[in-house]
Amino acid sequence: MVLWQCQKQRLQQRPNGHCELGLAPLNPVLPSTGPSSVAWIEDMDDFETPFHEGELALQDMVGARARVQSYAPRMIRPFMPDQHRVFYRDLPYLFVGAVDEDSRPWATAWCGEPGFVGSPDPYTLAISDMRQADDPVSECIVEGAELGFLGLALHNRRRNRVNGRVVRGAENQVTVKVSQSFGNCPKYIQKRIFAPSELQEKKSPVRAEIRSAFSAEDLHMIEQVDTFFIASIAARPGENAKRGVDVSHRGGKPGFVKATPDGRLIIPDFAGNNHFNTLGNIHETGKAGLLFLDFKTGDILQATGAATLLWPEESEWNYGGAERYLVFDVEQVVRRDSTFPLGWYYIDASPFIPDGGPWLKV
């Protein structure tokens, strides 16, 4: 395996609004980013890409494949650099994506004192077992399971992702062998801080409600959020490092997630890095798991269901700044009130969020 040594990470804001987290390797194997390197990539029929066919298909649809390939192999690694390992160690929460026995994706959040996520070596995550009985993700954590993780520092908008497979480890730990590790840019992240003194001071959690559809209370919560999380799965998970489970963040103005009259959710997809990790999985499998948090009450709403990608000309609804839309048809809902144990304070919105809204029927 090639261990990349990086001088720095920097956010490169592209003229078209797309961002990519660039890396400056000390000993690069690939040529530097630019027109010559793009042509070089296009000529390599046997070039090893870190993306699977679903991701590549969407990159092709938007004409971004050559540009993404010119830098992405340097930033998507089969190990965690030391700065990522320290980053995860310092977090009091971690977002997790998993797949149940029916191949349905779910997303959740695990919380603990900083240090509950550890990394004994660059290829391993060792996480104190924070599973809860009513959380649908808990039953998914078995040896050999593919998992996706998102580390997100809301106070400074830093985020890193890691995907891997559960392996046998110490008792009372979830041990994961890393498949892919990479950073993401800070776009669309609302800045929040939490008060450590409020850990565990919220009212006691109530028993989970399990339903096949969203309630009116659920939809009211959903249409108020400015942040949610989405889990997805590639076809043939575990076949290689490219094919696993992913969990990612989405942000926008309150109301950017819309409940349509027919009970679906429609979500705008804004300009991003064009990796299409989440949407590439959905392109292949048509499935997604959503996680909504009420940062004030600690209520958690999880849903799994069918997901469809629509281009603007295919959508009955329009939202300013959207490059495409995700339509979600719920199959199962799990609501766990007063479960998320951190007390959060909103600071400010991401400066990248499009003005958007209101939703307009085309």
Keywords for this structure?
mainly beta; Pnp Oxidase, Chain A; 8-stranded antiparallel beta sheet; 7-stranded antiparallel beta sheet; 14% helix; 38% strand; disordered N terminus
Instruction: Identify the CATH class of the largest domain.
Output: Mainly Beta
Return Rg in Å: 20 Å
Tally the helices: what do you get?
7
Question: What is the H level of CATH, i.e. the homologous superfamily of the largest domain?
Answer: Electron Transport, Fmn-binding Protein, Chain A
Largest sheet data? 8 strands, antiparallel
Helix content: 10-25%
The total strand number stands at: 21
CATH architecture of the largest domain: Roll
Unreliable runs, pLDDT <50, ≥5 residues? 1-17, 20-46
Average of the residue pLDDT scores: 87
Explain this structure.
- This protein has helices at 35-42, 53-61, 65-69, 72-75, 82-89, 216-222, 277-285; strands spanning 6-13, 19-25, 93-99, 105-111, 117-121, 124-128, 146-153, 158-167, 173-184, 191-194, 209-211, 227-233, 245-251, 258-259, 265-269, 287-293, 300-310, 317-318, 324-336, 344-348, 360-361.
- The protein has 362 residues and is mostly beta strands.
- The protein has two domains: 14-75, no CATH class; 82-361, Electron Transport, Fmn-binding Protein, Chain A (Pnp Oxidase, Chain A, Roll).
- Strands 11, 12, 13, 14, 15, 16, 17 and 19 form an eight-stranded antiparallel beta sheet that branches.
- The longest helix has 9 residues, at 53-61.
- The protein is globular.
- The protein starts with 5 loop residues before the first strand and ends with a strand.
